[in-house]
Structure formats: C-alpha cells, structure tokens
Amino acid sequence: MHVDRIDRSIGELIDQISNAEILLPEIQREYVWKPTQVAKLMDSIYRGYPFGSLLFWETDDTPQTREMSVSGTEVSPLRPPLFLLDGQQRLTSLHRVFNDHPEAQVVFNVETQKFQNQSAATQRDPKWIKVAKVLDPKTSMLRLTKELLDAGSTLPDHDIEERLSHIRRLRDRRFVMEVLKGFPYEEVAEIFVRVNSGGRRLGTLDLAMATLSTRWTGVLAKLKDEAQYWAQRGYPDIDVNFLSRALAGVVLGRGLSIWSHSRLRQTEDVELERGWEVVKRGLRRLVPLLQANLRLTRSDPLPSMVVLIPLVVLVGERSEEPIDKPTTNGIIYWLLLATIQTRYSGSTDTKLSQDIRAARQPEPVRALLEGLNVEHSRAEVTDRALRGRTKESPYFFLSLLVSLADGARDWWYGTEILPGHDDGQRLEHHHIHPPTTLDDRFDKGVVNDLSNLVFISTKASKKINGRSPAEYFPTLEEQELRAHHVPLDEPLRNADGYARFLIERRRMLADAMNGLLDRFRPDFLDEVPPGPADPNAGLSLDLALFESRRDDGQMVFTATGDNISWLGSADVGELEAAIDSARIAGIDSDVTIAGESVPVQMIEDSLHVPIGPFLVTGTPEEWRAVFDRERLASQPLSAAPPLASAPWSGDRIKFPVTSTD
Question: Which of 147, 189, 442, 620 has the maximum number of C-beta atoms within 10 A of its C-beta?
Fold first, then answer.
C-alpha cells in the first residue's frame, strides 16, 4: 500500500470524467453545490487562488459506484478508472461549466472581471459572456472581442483579448492529486470518513452512509429501490437520506453522531439486514395509517420527516398481527403533538435517540408522550398559540389536516385540496383577504397570518382577482366556506373587519385542531387537566428586513411574550454570511445582534442563533426559507425604525425559526 503524489491539469481531469476514467465510489454523497458556489470556484481559479487538492483511489477490485451529476459520460473507458474520494463537488462543478451544463450557466463580465450564475439581467446585458463559450476551442477570440466592443465595452481590445485568453487558460491550471494504491475497500472508506469529517464538510448522515457502504455492499441500490417505491406512491420524501437515517436509527438504536460511523463499522451484515427489514416493514405499516387516518396521501405537507423514524421503529419491530386501534390513535396523536412542538427543530439526533428508546418500551405510546411532557395533561391548541403564525409554522400543517377532515375542496371548482401524487400538482394556498384589499394599517405579518390563508388553487385565486371577501363570498356556498373554517359574518368581509376576522377564524381553527387531537387522544389522558399543546404559545419573534442597493441593510427583531419585550437588529450581510458558513461549511462563527456578539452554530443538523430572549433553531432549509420570505417583503432602509436596543441579559428560550413572523 502506498500513496502517489502527482499533478494533472483541469482539462485532463475533465476529459477523464467525460471518458468515464474518473468514477464515484458508492460511499460518496450526492452533488450538492449551488450555482453561487460554482461561480466562486471559477473566480478563485481565475484569480490564481489556491483551490485545493484531490484524493483518488486506484484498485483492481471495482467497487460499487454511483453516477456523477454530469452529462455526456456514456462511454467505455480506455484505461482503468480512478475512484474520486475527495473533490467531487469541485470536479463536478468544473465539468459542468466547461461542458455548458444547464444547471451551471456561469457568466463573466469582461470589464469587472466578475463571475456569477446566468440571470435575466445578465442575459439582457451583452457584456456578460458565458464562460463555456469562451472555453470552447471553436470560439474565435477575435469575434468575441468584436462583439464586446460592439456591445459598448470601453476596454482596449488587447485588454479584452487578454482577459478572455486568461479564462481559456484555466484549462491548464493544475490540481495536486494523491492516489491511494493497494488499499482495501474497508480502509479506503475509513480514510474517506476521516478526510471528510475533519472540517465537517460532510454531515453525520453522509458519514453514516459512507460507512454503511463499507459494511454492506450494494446498500445504495437497496435504498434507491425503496425510495423509488415510495416516490411512485406519493411519498418522494422517503428518499435515500431519510432511509439512511432510519436504517442507522434502527441498527444503532439512536440518532446519529460523529461516532456513529465507528459503531456502524462494527455492525455485522446480519444486523444490517435485520434493520433494513424493520425499516421496510415499518414504512409499509405506518404510511397506510397516515393515509387512512389523516388523509395524508403524499409526504410533502409534512414539516419534518424525522418525526416518522420513531414510529417506523415502533411498528416495524412489532409482530405481524394488526395494530390495535388504541395504538394507532396514540401513534397519530404523538405525531401531531411532535409536529406542533417542532420536536426536531434543534438537537435533532439527541431527541431522536430518546424517541427511539421510547418506541422500544413495553408501552411505547406512553413513553413517547412522556418525551413531549404531555403525559400529565391533555394538549390543547389555543387562539393565542395561533396568533401571528405564518405558513412556516407547524400549525399550517394542522390547518391542512382539519380542512381535509372536514371535506374542504377547491372553491368554485370542487377539486381536492391535496392533489394526488400522479398529477404533478403541489399543495397550494392563497389569501382569503387579498393583500391589495388591506390598507397600510396591517403589516406584512398580519396580512400573511395563518388565519388569512386557505387551501385553494391558483385558478380559484385568479377568480378572486384581488376582490374583497365582501364581493366574492356571495358567489360561494356556505358549506364551501365552513369546510375551510371561514367565518360567515358579513361585517368581517372587508378591511375594517379584518382584525376581527382573524380573531374569529383563529377560534374556529383552534376548535377544529382540538377536535382532531381529541379524535386520537389516548384514553389515559382523559383523566388529566388540559395544558398547552405548544410550549411556545404566547411567544412571538417578528423579523423585518430593511435594505438598499448600496448597503447590506438591517434585520430588525421584535420579541414579545409574557414578561418579554425586546427590540434588536443585526447587519443582514453579516448575519447571512454567518448562517451560510455554518450551513454550508459547518464552520461556527459570530454575529453582532443588538450590540452583542453571539455564536452562530451548527449543532447536529440544526442551526442555533441566540436572538434576544430566544435561542432560535431550525434546519438550514428552514432558515433559508425564512430569509427568502423576508426578502419578498423587504422595505427600504430609510424606513427602518430608530433602535435603542440592548443585549438580552436573562435566560434564553428555545424557539423554532419556523414560528417567526
């Protein structure tokens, strides 16, 4: 066994990928880079910055492989392939750019020497040139230079030619390569895990998947086949990642951690086989329960898929006899409460470990409910808990479920509000009081309140066409409104009655949600007093983005609740950079909020950010959705209120980012 150290040009490596002479072993994760990261890589190489080394494995024993996310590689290699262990994201990105992949349309501004992904603006501006066009050896540099001069470039022609030639010479930049020779698959996988865990470039799930591949050849094919089975049945979110986490949870009896791969490495194949049968059996018993009891015919409305894993363990490890009604009801009840409480918004794998252990107790439903701290109370949804909630809130999911339970259908057209998985449509929602009918008395949080949202199609929304409910409600049957829990009182149908409309609809939704919970509540909870279903009921964190073209802008936070009143702000650029560093690279950093430097940390698979009285948690995808939401409603920086805020000095309450307004 030895390691060769060589170097090779970018052009040679890209050709090797095209010729199937560089392959991905099964232990690799999927390609995950975003267009912005691809453009930054091109910029780094152009500027002569270091762009890292590559790690390969050369072997005579061909391992299981997975496809690279590139096109044009359907050929037979002329020489034995190298298996790429470290550098997949960079090499795949470069191959995509050089070969004009539709998802890597990187363009270059010859005057500013900037790279970015193609946009509508760059398509309209002829000074932005597609990098793939410059790299194409058939492209004439003289013709490109003339096109840029004709487009109004003020650069001398020789400067334009030099900058374009510099891009073309990127093909000659060289990667340092290390090639492992004579190493067995098990040892290569261990090297892969160590290389990719040091800087946390891979998450615990990716590392677990890599280790599973070494212990059980062909596991990726099994996971893909099972994922395909569920995708065809409306549950595409039961994907390879979910199945990997579920399998590791069954085998290890806990959530993932940085030590999981070493424990998985010691697992016998027979244990993996047994665990895989539990996962498959559990899903085939659990999903029909969701479909029959909640009318949940597809997976995309579920706020979290992790919530299914303890239930997969519970039903998958039971005997083949039918699941009795009390257990079925308890399973659904726990799922609803775990969703309301955003059970896995922070410390996901720690809580998953607790819940898997509970699912294996003699009385699993009771043990699971103890984990939610509701074994001594009947959970109830209050009007107050719904106040200020938006579509990111888990109550949005419950509002769908109660609408389905009451037979709600699309207004005017009578179609299902949760489309079947075969028609390719997605779940839709629109405003009851359109924003155009509400005046400046109502801010964006109030306009987008959960209680102003209803599950109707775009076709129905176009029929509303910005009209007030006072105009279009008379064209609907009363039952069509009642099924969606919409109040019928005429004074609530215009802007003057909007505040009272929200109060009344919150009450109706809360009643319907409590009815749903009561339907599945275990009998042993009937004897205990009521208590809040959501521990964060009454707490609120409002976000407001103020920005301008010249400045990053400010994110203003307003926190309220019992004995809580706090106002603070952060620089948007600094906040977003810190979150992206933790989200993309796993690098913890700091950001200044209300004059206090606070840590932004990736703990397990959740981002934790202290904001005033709250420790705000959520998955990277949830944080990204919140930023996108705020950008759509951003205001001019000149409209930002004057702030006299101070750092929070008390204890912090864990608060899910999905509950922000």
Answer: 189
Mention every residue, 6+ apart, whose C-beta is less than 8 A from residue 446: 502
Q: Is 523 exposed, middle or buried (0-12, 13-18, 19+ CB in 10 A)?
A: exposed
pLDDT of residue 200: 41
The answer on 340 and 206 residing in a single domain is yes
Q: How many CB atoms lie within 10 A of CB 639?
A: 9
Same domain for 388 and 322: no
Give the pLDDT confidence of 283-306 residue by residue, as tens digits.
999 999 999 999 999 999 999 899
| Measured distance CA(248)–CA(223) in Å, rounded | 12
* CA gap 470, 490 in Å, rounded: 7
Written as six digits, the tokens of 146 are: 């003339």
Looking from the CA of 394 toward its CB, the CA atoms found within 13 Å total 27
Helix (H) or strand (E) holding 368: helix 364-371
pLDDT tens track for 422-444: 655 678 999 999 999 997 788 88
CA angle 461, 462, 465 (to 5 degrees): 95
Rounded Cα distance, 573 and 627, in Å: 12
User: What is the dihedral angle through the alpha carbons of 296, 297, 299, 305, rounded to the nearest 10 degrees?
Assistant: 40
Task: Work out the pLDDT band at 199, boundaries 50, 70, 90.
Answer: very low
pLDDT at 453: 96
Residue type (1 letter), 655: F
Mark whether 290 and 426 lie in a shared domain. Answer: no
> In terms of domains, do 454 and 360 share one?
no
Find how far residue 447's CA is from the centre of its chain.
25
Last residue of a domain, one of 493, 509, 532: 532
Residues 253 and 329 in one domain: yes
Our measurement of the distance from residue 98's CA atom to the centroid of its chain's CA atoms, rounded to an integer in Å, reads 29
CB 371 within 8 A of CB 478: no
With contact defined as beta carbons under 8 Å apart, do 593 and 610 qualify? yes
How far apart (Å, rounded) are the C-alpha atoms in residues 109 and 100? 17
Range of the domain at 637: 540-659
Mean pLDDT for the chain overall = 86
Alpha carbon distances (Å) from 252 to 275, 279, 283, 409: 9, 13, 18, 44
For residues 208 and 260, give the distance between their C-alpha atoms in angstroms, rounded to a whole number: 7
